[in-house]
Specification:
Elements (H helix, E strand, L loop, with lengths): L1 E2 L2 H23 L4 E7 L3 H17 L2 E7 L5 H13 L5 E4 L9 H7 L11 H8 L8 H12 L8 E5 L6 H10 L3 E5 L6 H5 L4 E4 L17 E4 L3 E2 L5 E2 L4 H4 L5 E2 L6 H22 L1
Parallel strand pairs: 1-11, 2-3, 2-4, 5-6, 5-7, 7-8, 8-11
Antiparallel strand pairs: 9-10
Helix pairs in contact: 1-10, 2-10, 6-7, 6-10
C-alpha cells in the first residue's frame, strides 16, 4: 500500500508557481490577482479563505477578500462581481460557498466572467470540460488528476466508481476521468446498492461528507482509493469518507485525510489563477 501524499505534491507545485510568478513580474510586469467573496460567519468558510490567502502570499499573488455580512443583498454581491470582472488586476474570482439561503447561488456563479472563473463552476467552463476542451476545471477534481499523474497512475481502461454527484466534485471528477479514458460509474444518495458498484471498481473516488462510508468489505484487493471527504469527529479528529485503517490494508494506493486531496485543492486554485494571469500576455 502506497500513500498518495498531496501535502508533499502541493508544496512542489507551489514552488513551481512561485518561480513562474517571479518570471511574470520580471518580464511582463504582471502580478496574478485573486479576489474572494466571503459572506457570513461560517467558521469553516473563514478557515478555508485564510488558507487560500496564505497560499497566495506564499507564491507572490496579489489577493483581496471581500467580507460581507450574512444579510447582504443579492444586488450588492452582484455589483461586487461586476466590479471585479472589469478590474484588469484581478485574474481570478472565487465565491466561497455555501452562500446564505436568500442568495441565488447559481445566478452569482453565472455572473463571474468565465475567463476569471478559477473555481471552474461557470456553466461555460463546465460545458467545455464535458467536451474535453481547454478550460478551467474545478480545483478538487483537478487536484486528484494531478495526484494520479504524480504517482504514474493512468486511469485509462480502469473501472472507476465515483461516489457523490455534486456539481463541485462528483460530476467534474467523472468528466475528467472520462476524458482520461476511464470507465466511470457514478453513485449518489439514491443508488440502490452502493457496495455492488464499489466492489468491482479498480478505483473508488468518494466525496460525500460521511465518515466511514466506504468500509473494507466494499472494495476489492488492490483498489486505488481517493478520499475527498473531510469530516470532524466529536473528539476533534479529521477523517475522510473511508475507513482508512481497514481499507488501507486492501488498497494499492490511498489518500490520507488530512494531507491527501485537501492541499491539492488550494494548489490547483493557484495554478488556475496563474493560468488566467498568463492570458494577459496574449490579450
Amino acid at each position: 500500500m502506497k500513500i498518495l501524499d498531496g501535502k508533499k505534491l502541493s508544496q512542489k507545485i507551489k514552488e513551481q508557481i512561485k518561480a513562474e510568478v517571479e518570471d511574470l513580474k520580471q518580464h511582463h510586469g504582471i502580478t496574478p490577482g485573486l479576489a474572494v467573496i466571503l459572506v457570513g460567519d461560517d467558521p469553516a468558510s473563514h478557515t478555508y479563505v485564510k488558507m487560500k490567502a496564505k497560499a497566495c502570499k506564499e507564491v507572490g499573488f496579489y489577493s483581496i477578500v471581500h467580507e460581507m455580512p450574512d444579510d447582504i443583498s443579492q444586488e450588492k454581491i452582484e455589483d461586487t462581481i461586476k466590479m471585479m470582472n472589469k478590474n484588469p488586476n484581478i485574474d481570478g474570482i472565487l465565491v466561497q460557498l455555501p452562500l446564505p439561503p436568500h442568495i441565488d447561488t447559481t445566478r452569482i456563479l453565472e455572473l463571474i466572467d468565465p475567463a476569471k472563473d478559477v473555481d471552474g463552476f461557470h456553466p461555460y467552463n463546465f460545458g467545455r470540460l464535458m467536451q474535453g476542451l481547454e478550460t478551467f476545471a474545478p480545483c478538487t477534481p483537478l487536484g486528484v488528476m494531478e495526484l494520479l499523474k504524480e504517482y504514474s497512475i493512468n486511469p485509462q481502461g480502469l473501472d472507476v466508481c465515483v461516489v457523490g454527484a455534486s456539481n463541485i466534485v462528483g460530476k467534474p471528477m467523472a468528466a475528467l476521468l472520462l476524458n482520461a479514458n476511464a470507465t466511470v460509474d457514478i453513485c449518489h444518495i439514491y443508488t440502490k446498492d452502493l457496495q455492488s458498484h464499489t466492489k468491482r471498481a479498480d478505483m473508488v473516488v468518494v466525496g460525500v461528507g460521511k465518515p466511514s462510508l466506504i468500509t473494507a468489505d466494499m472494495v476489492k484487493d488492490g483498489v486505488i482509493i481517493i478520499d475527498i471527504g473531510i469530516n470532524r469527529l466529536d473528539d476533534g479528529r479529521l477523517v475522510g469518507d473511508v475507513d482508512f485503517e481497514e481499507v488501507s490494508k486492501k488498497a494499492s494506493y490511498i489518500t490520507p485525510v488530512p494531507g491527501g486531496v485537501g492541499p491539492m485543492t488550494i494548489a490547483m486554485l493557484l495554478q488556475n489563477t496563474l493560468k488566467a494571469a498568463k492570458k494577459r500576455i496574449t490579450d
